[in-house]
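Homework-ish question, so no full write-ups if that breaks the rules, but can someone show me the predicted structure for this set?
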Amino acid sequence: MMIEALIGVVLLGAAVVFVAPNRIAGKLAFAISLVPAALSLWMFAVFDGSGNALLDGELAFESHLEWIQFGEYAISWFVGLDGISLPLVVLTTLLTTLAIVSSWTPIDERESQFYGLVLFIEANLIGVFAALDFFVWFIFWEAVLIPMYLLIGIWGGPRRKYAAIKFFVYTNVASLVMFGAFIALVFGLGDSVTSFALPEIATAMLAGELGSVYGLEATTLASVVFIAMFLGFAVKVPIVPFHTWLPDAHVEAPTPASVLLAGVLLKMGTYALLRFNFTMFPEQVDAYAVPIAAIAVISVIYGAMLALAQTDLKRIVAYSSVSSMGYVILGLIAYTQFGVGGATFQMVSHGLISGLMFMAVGVIYNATHTRMVTDMSGMADRMPVAVGILIAGAFGYMGLPLMSGFAAEYFIFFGAFGSTFLAYAPIFTAIAMFGIVIVAGYLLFAMQRAVFGPYSLETDYEVSRAPLHDVAPMFVLLGLIIALGVAPELIFEMITDAVDPILENGGDL
Amino acid sequence: MAILELPGWAALAPALLLAGTALALFIIDSIQPHSSDRGILAGTATVGSLASLTVAVWFLLAGVGQPGLEGLGVIELFDGQFVVDQMALFFMIIVAVVTALISVASYDYMDGHAYQAEYYSLVMLAATGMALMAAANSLVTIFIALELASLPSYALVAILKDNRGSVEAGLKYFLIGALSSAIMIYGISLIYGTTGVMQLDSIALELEALVDDGAEFGGLLGLGLVMLIGGFAFKTASVPFHFWAPEAYEGAPAPISAFLSSASKAAGFVIAFRVFTTAFPIDVTNELIGVDWTIAFIILAVVTMTVGNFAAATQNNVKRMLAYSSIGHAGYALIGLAGLSVDGGEPVMGAAMMHLLVYGFMNTGAFLFVALAEHWGVGRTFEDYNGLGKRAPVACFALAIFMFSLAGIPPLGGFWSKYFLFFGALEAGLLVVAAALVINSALSLYYYTRLVKAVWIDEPLTQRDALAQPTGLYAAIVVAAVMTVVLLPGFGPVVDAALEAATIVVA
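A: Not a homework solution, just the prediction itself:
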């Protein structure tokens, strides 16, 4: 019942904050969000699961209740955590708490609605990572859209209405495509499944129960479903060429929404890819390994090139997320322990680092009211602490050793380079590694222009040191980034424990 | 169980209670002509419809309409002219719910209007007709029930006598309604000419006999079927008889728009479900006329949802947008018939029934919000609604719930039914319909969120004073919103009831 308690507390908190006066909403939301954060850390400490949730693993905090019987299929409230989902749940709760603190300065209207929506999003994100029944998972997956739409639409920048509806329609269409594909898969499995429980479906898939439906042979059906689901998730990740909603959404979103968007929402896509495509379809992963690796590498390089061309700090960080997510895909398609484990590690690591970067950019924007690199220079003089953290975050992005970004990218490259599963693995890895150089290029270039050199600012604002509550969350994140960089085994062990069963079905263990 | 000792006609109690309420309202009106005692009138109507709702729910829970139960089971009345099975009760519940909601809301909406007693009694009479449509099991009773529902509706649309829009809408609705009635009854006469019977089960038997005799009169029967479909299309506001809907809904008082677009549409669907599953089994009819009638519904479903959604996306008037959205939803519900096949198809028809139930809450709620806006006098376009969220957060929060639920976004009730319909369409192999659903759904998201955007995101064009909070309208809207949310976790019983009901009819 721990997961229900976790989600329940957050939902209840969201309702309370909704009706609380604006004046205290921010502090109240922070206080409430400490409960799930503490609870999830406690769950992390006492975690006793092993193996993969979909492949006969020992689930932690499992609960299973009958909900709806639709024809021959049972839909049940089925939640539980394994080594892949638990770190992401902890990431969600911690990042939400920090995002709430970082909103105290920029959010100055309709606070109670804002913080209520942030908590509502948190509840749904926890649900996405904990759900093990397709319909439960899908409800949380889709329910994330409403609060994010409103967060961008109400508190966003000048083009917020366009960005919000683009985000909403884009991701909703992707979800429908994915839903249709998955349902076709369930029909293809015929009598071998009687519920939408993901473990049952995964087991049936791996046992080769897939039959033909709509006149498609089993293998063709599997390929069609695999591709449709891949496309559905690719929008969320996002993978080039489905990434165009991301810069709009990020640039217009208020800082805390960007933090959650980059930190957690993008991970929904890669998490789902890992849970569905890479767990249930080992044969199709094998068949489409080269094109997927090519897309991953293109995402890495193209995303980095796009970032190189930007002068808006937030756009730079947004496009760099496209690039970082490309690494995750590369790690997944390598299908080795270090590849897939590293990809999962990168999900957490990138959540922390991109959250940090967006916060730092937000703090600078709060003071200067501009994000254009060309409008400012020498910010380090006026905001030494905030800028210092921004630089630290940038080095984390570039993969400085002893920071989590280094560990994540090292695992991925190590796993991908030696992969016997993926053809031309060394070539793909070598090209992707070149992405690091571009990342270093655009980040250093932006830093050099914006934060070093003599102080000047195009806008008429007096810039002074950022308040403590703006800087404190970034310090926490930086601490976590360094902790995971120094001791990646903190989560890497439980991740590999959950990843290994996936690879036993066809990967390169 | 007490129900065992009741006479057979008592099974129609949900409809009879509505009729009794209408008579009670007439009596009140004759004792105190031109009464404007809103409490008594709206109160009577609400109590009557809630009583009907309670009885219908009780019957359903007690097992009326479940085959195989001793003494209960499917109850046939008057030699099978009416049948009370689970589907009938299910739709009676929808009708009673919507009637209760709009009775409560009309308490404020009709404040200061003339003909209040007439208004409520006409609503009750129309509701009686709709409840009878749910149980009608012969082409004659179907037609009579349909007219009983339609005639008061024409008057209700035009009840704001001093309002040109209302009168014009009433006339248009009446003319198209009369035309479609004529077409439908001509279709009925052709079917009677082919088979010689009116009762639905007998028609199915006669058709089998016709097949054995060498399958004559196929063309006549086919023509009759097409004309019948025309009648249903009118009542459910489906293409090609949909064009009255935007006019009538826009001109009518908003609670009546809610009533027509939720309850009347559901009633139209129940007769379509019953007639086509009971009287025209797919295999037999196919042999006679050479075409599978589900093809007609596949085309109608795709065209209706596409026309409705594309037209809704271009509207500037909120009420017209909702009217077209209601056409779009008729298209979704038509999947319930399109997905039937010789092998069955009860999941898809059950999903359509669930959709109509959820729709009864979310769509009624949305139209009642328009009623509230008319009560405030804020105007009719999206721009006029700008920034209402700051002045009336509760009602606007409810509106956001209705809009996201209509778009089928969780965590709201509309999610289940839309995705079950999608599921059903895929199960039936209707890939074209499923694809149309995806496209339309994306489009609908655009215009539903446009209304959310107007009330919550956009800045008001003019400064507004504080807005009134009329009790009745607020109560109805909040109840509808709460039900829309509660139906997400509590959808299990709805699914069970709808699937069982569909199984009985389809099998």
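Now go work out the reasoning yourself. Hint: Chain A is about 70% helix and 5% strand.
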